[in-house]
Structures are given as C-alpha cells and as structure tokens.
Amino acid sequence: MTVDVAKKHDYLLLTRINRGDELIHVGTFKAVNDDLAKIYAQHIYDEEDWVEMFVVKKEALVCVRSPEPLFAKE
Amino acid sequence: MSKEHISLIELGETIADNKFILGDRLVEIGISGPTLEGTLSSIAMAQQELGHSRLLYRWVSDLSGIKTEVKHQTGKAFKQNVEIGNWIELIAGIYVTNVAVDLVMNAMIEANNPNVNPPFTKMLKEQQEHLIYSQSWCDQLLLDKGSIPRRTKEAISKTAQEAKEWLIKVENDMYFVTENIIPKDARLVENFDATLGEVLKDVEKQHVG
Lengths: 74, 209
Fold this sequence. Notes:
A: alpha+beta; B: mainly alpha; globular
C-alpha cells in the first residue's frame, strides 16, 4: 500500500536582473523538492539573463504583518 | 577507416541517436505532461537534448570524415525510446538512458585520451539537470496510486535491459580499453545497476506492508 503520493510544495521565485538591482518576486510554482524547483525555475523563467535567482518554499516565509480582512468573518 | 575506429563512431552515434529521439519525444509526449511545470521543463529539455545530439553527430562526422545532413537517427537508439508513447515511458526513458550515457561520458572524460576529444564537457551540466528532473519524476510516479508504480517499474526495467546490453558491449570492447578510451576499471554495468537499484530501493522503503 502506498503511504502518500510525493508531496508538492509551493515555491516562490525571486530574481535580480542586474547587479545592484532589487530582488523581485517574479513567480510561483509547485515542485516536490528543492532540486526540481531549481530546474523548473531555470527552465520556466528564462525570459531574462538573471544575475541572481532564488527559490524558497512558501511555507518557509515568516509572516510579520498580514492585511486586515476586507469583510468581517461570519 | 579501421574496424576499431568504427566502434567509437558507433558509440557516438548510439548516444546521439538516443538524444535525438528523446528530444523528439520530450516535445511530442511532454506537451501533454501531468503538470504545467513538468511540461514547460520538458520542452526546454527537448531543445537541450537535440542540441547535444547535434554536437555529437558533428563529432562523429569529424571522426568518420563523412559530412551528412542529419534528418533521422541512424537506427542505434534504444527500441524502447523509439516506442515511447506516454509520460511514464518518457520519464523512464530519459532517466535510464541518461544514467547509462552519463556513465560512459564520464568514463571517457576520466580516460582523457587526447586523440578522442569528445564534446561531452559542454553538455554534462545540462545532462545532470535532466537526471535530477527524471529521477524526481520517477520517484513521484513510483509513489503514485493505482497501476502507475507498477507501470513505471516495468518501463524502467525494459529500458534498463537495453541500456545494460549496450554498456556490456562498451565495457567489453577491447579497442576502448587498449586505446585508453574507457578506463580498464570503469565498471559501467556495476555502477549502472547500483544507481537504478538505489532509486527502486528508496521507493520500496516508503511503501508499507
């Protein structure tokens, strides 16, 4: 019996176009591990010759402040 | 052209043909992959595999002294790769073929024979990415539900059988060893079995009962 299908994680991609530029969030995608996430990042987001690229699991982000909800919860 | 020289040309054409076919299948089958990320990567890798095959055909052409326009493979690609018809067979084909090809390429680089001068170093980084991609996908398929794990194992075994036969032929070719094209202690088959065994063993560990 299979325990679980390989778990997919949400990854954020952060890039810098040129040295000194800001690090910007350019996309989000799903992958089962960091190695595959790095490959996806390079293959999917190849529109620029980025000087720097980072992938990070969305769950690794630490929330400092989140927006107030627009509507009150019922 | 000496008879011995032919075996080196055959080796180059076998790798080039497999990469040519895999490049074609990565587009044909990869376009309808199970995830958008997997599909986009598949198309990017198709371009890279076709690029590798073009480099290899040019190298073979320099060895043989015959310049020909490549329109089709020369018939040396693994039969299982030619018959790839679904995502499972595609992933198994990319993984097993690249494991075998990577072992041969690294053995030739290690031998460092100045008369051979293969263009492998240019493609090793991309090939490593193809190995990580296909191994990650093999792991996912082997952990999936229903008949997918069994079909994945079968596809891996079928391609592995052909790849192993090829590696045995390469390893036992006296010309390669005596001319220092492949090191004497390359142990291609042993390393191939160990690598594939690891992938299947890792998955077995995650199954219960």
